[in-house]
From TrEMBL:
Subcellular location field: Cytoplasm
Source species of the chain: Macaca fascicularis
Superkingdom as given in the UniProt entry: Eukaryota
Protein name in UniProt: Adenine phosphoribosyltransferase
Entry GO terms, CC: cytosol; nucleoplasm
GO biological process entries: adenine salvage; AMP salvage; GMP salvage; grooming behavior; IMP salvage; purine ribonucleoside salvage
Subunit structure and binding partners: Homodimer.
InterPro entries in the record: Ade_phspho_trans, PRTase-like, PRTase_dom, UPRTase/APRTase
Length: 178
């Protein structure tokens, strides 16, 4: 029998034709709207991390929907949360990395003093598609000499093979869709 909490989260994921007909978009908005399914999602991710890792120092939330899951997951685990944002959005000295998009490129940054060398971090976002954003986040964390323990997301689009781009960093998702 499947986990009832996971079933609750899965029932809240919508798959509308968006942004064009024939493209199935995995919409997490109903999970956020429903306190029980959001709580279940955070609880499931937290339990996975507690079982899988000993010490975790921080959760790193990715701009922008990782900001919705990162702080809640960090609170559930009794940890702090650091932000990895689109370039130009953080004050103070930062480090940044570019990554490829389907059409063009994007850049992420983190504040230079966000972490100390050797701190153990888990990266969280709402969805893994091609892996470009998470890969860039791992690169940034590596520049700060942090240890990336794992990347996690609510949803994974398996056909885009994003987890392969993250190797050797482990990846975990609650829900997988082709």
């Amino acid at each position: 029998m499947a986990d009832p909490e996971l079933q609750l989260v899965e029932r809240r994921i919508r798959s509308p034709d968006f942004p064009t007909p024939g493209v199935l978009f995995r919409d997490i908005s109903p999970v956020l709207k429903d306190p029980a399914s959001f709580r279940a999602a955070i609880g499931l991710l937290a339990r996975h991390l507690k079982v899988t890792h000993g010490r975790i120092d921080y959760i790193a939330g990715l701009d922008s929907r990782g900001f919705l899951f990162g702080p809640s997951l960090a609170q559930e685990l009794g940890l702090g949360c650091v932000l990895i944002r689109k370039r130009g959005k953080l004050p103070g000295p930062t480090v940044w990395a570019s990554y490829a998009l389907e059409y063009g490129k994007a850049e992420l940054e983190i504040q230079k003093d966000a972490l100390e060398p050797g701190q153990r971090v888990v990266v969280v976002d709402d969805l893994l598609a091609t892996g470009g954003t998470m890969h860039a986040a791992c690169e940034l964390l590596g520049r700060l000499q942090a240890e990336v323990l794992e990347c996690v997301s609510l949803v994974e689009l398996t056909s885009l093979k994003g987890r392969e781009k993250l190797a050797p960093v482990p990846f975990f998702s609650l829900l997988q869709y082709e």
